Predict the structure of Helix-turn-helix domain-containing protein.
Amino acid sequence: MQHGPAVRRRKLGAELRALRSSAGLTSGEAARLVGWHQSKVSRIETGTSGVKPTDVRLLLDAYGVTDAQLRELLMMLAGAEDSDGRHHWWHAYRGVLPPTYRDFISLESQAGAMRTLETTVVPGLLQTPEYARAVTRAAVEGLPEDRLDTLVEVRLARQDVLRADPPLELSAVLDEAVLRREVGGPGVMARQLERLVEAARLPQVRLQVLPFAAGAHIGVTGPFVIFSFSSTSDLDVVVLDHLTSSLYLERKEDLQAYTEAFNALQIHALSPEDSLDFIAGTAAGA
């Protein structure tokens, strides 16, 4: 269990080590190809030291890696700009967002798929501006209005991943409590439920409701997110949110356990079609 930056370094290092091995190179041979000492390659591969995007590019070139998507993903993990040479949009908020949140956003922006269990609030990618404001205000008491505006702005900017090409594939299981908890007042909640109905009809979104009638379930221990990457499953990661930070689980056994848990939740939840009717019915009665 690690904080975001450490996980990213270790995952990046492990992937670079695998690519070097596939290229049939020893760490010493790789170091000579790029003009480094062998110890630098070792430190990068073990995640004990950071690595610059330019260094990652040198290694990928040396290993003959031509997969554009994989290259961009690994460069992103090293903190690179996007493919057009621009800084990622969240860099403008470096003075406002904690590092763990920036790491979460960077993973979210590059992931091919996201699976999430939500037990208390609507997933951030599906929140309306009014709902996002009410949730943020409740989560952080005494927040100045300008800071609140910024955090809501970030929350809404994150939603662009659902409109990207290709879009992030979002699978979400929502406990019925998410739909019943009145956030921001009746009007705000009614609009939020309407937004969920709209989202449930999108081809890249799969929403399922876990009704109270399902009883106790494996998700009662709390919400979680699983990020999956189309280029390599070795970069998949589970994120657990806490009040002041996020924790990242990267071990294969952790990924397997949470994947199996999510699959079980989907089985016990209503089907996407029945969930859409359930949300619409809840909205009509709101």
Summary: The CA atoms of residues 14 and 68 lie 19 Å apart. The radius of gyration is 21 Å.
